[in-house]
Structures are given as C-alpha cells and as structure tokens.
C-alpha cells in the first residue's frame, strides 16, 4: 500500500475534547510531521535568496481553556518569532489542509504591503484557479481568487491597508479527503509547487 503523509487520525485531532487531551494528541500525531515539513522546506525557501528561513511549529502556549481548532508550521526569515513578518504556513483544520503566504495583524508594514500588491494585482489574479484568499487566519473559510475577481480582491487589500486587525492570506486549500488520499511523494511535490507559485508574491510583499 502506498504510504500517505496525512491520515484521518491526524485530522481527527481537532475532534479530541479538552485542551490537555487535544494538545497531547497534537504533540504526538501532528507536530512531528510539522517538524519534518520544516526540515524539508526551509532549505527550499532559503535558497530563494531573500534571507535564511527558519521553521516555527505552533505551540499554542498561550491557551489556557479553549483547545486549538487548527495548527501549523510557519516559515519566516527570523529565528525568533514570525507573526510580525510575512510568512509561509503549512497547516491543518479539521476539514482541510492549507499552504499559504500570510500577513497577519501583528505585521507593522500592512499599509506598504497592501499598496505594493494593489499596484501589481495581476500577480494575484494570474495564480492558478485553485488558489484562494482570506482576510482572517482565525477562520477556516477562504475564497477562490478566480471567483471573486479584481474588485473583491482590491477590497480585501484596501481593508488590509485601513483596518488595524485586517489580515491577508493567499495560497491553497486541500480538502481532508484529498490530503489523506495523496501519497507522501505527491503531497511533498504539491507543497513545493505551491511555494514556487507563492514566492513571486512574497517578493512583491517584501518589496
């Protein structure tokens, strides 16, 4: 039988009740895979030549009551902290997997990023049809770039410019059943392809 990278057991972590029990399941089932992905893809991102990248596996350390409903490994050109920088993520919700370039609310350069992307909107609209955007990393939903078109994309970037808590994420989502059906080789190739398509956007984001 072909080895898959992800299993149903991985996604069902988010069905485990209670903070402690879910964190234990995350640490045992998911975080070793995120660590492996960090080791595999940090060299690829660093080789792009825009700074050395470092992996950051989400620890959810500030949580005291509510168990996490998603988890991820982030890649950023900083050893300590990544949330204030444009960064890449590979992560899971209970329903799907995501591979994104993320600008979240801690980023101090959101106005500049918004302006640069608005000047080069075709960079986003030319992405393949399975690429999606979101304005909130705390919610699982995202919209297809091809479906929303330039007008709604512009509105999302305007919001990034004007609203303190606004965010912008762009990348790919893979449904749970799709992710668990992919062989490990297919999944790793899918991640590599996703990053290669997102790196030109990253270049524009960092100016």
Runs in which pLDDT lies below 50 for 5 or more consecutive residues are: none
Overall number of structural domains: 1
Secondary-structure-derived class: alpha+beta
Biggest sheet, in brief? Answer: 7 strands, antiparallel
User: Could you state the CATH homologous superfamily?
Assistant: Protein of unknown function DUF1054
CATH topology descriptor: BirA Bifunctional Protein, domain 2
* Number of E-state strands: 7
Briefly, what CATH class? Alpha Beta
CATH architecture, by name, is: 2-Layer Sandwich
Q: Which strand order spans the largest sheet, edge to edge or round the barrel?
A: 1-2-3-4-7-5-6
Write the layout of secondary structure elements.
Blueprint: H1 8-11, H2 19-46, E1 54-57, E2 70-76, E3 87-93, E4 96-103, H3 110-119, H4 122-125, E5 131-134, E6 143-144, H5 145-162, E7 168-175, H6 176-181, H7 184-206
Antiparallel strand pairs: 1-2, 2-3, 3-4, 4-7, 5-6, 5-7
Helix pairs in contact: 3-5, 3-7
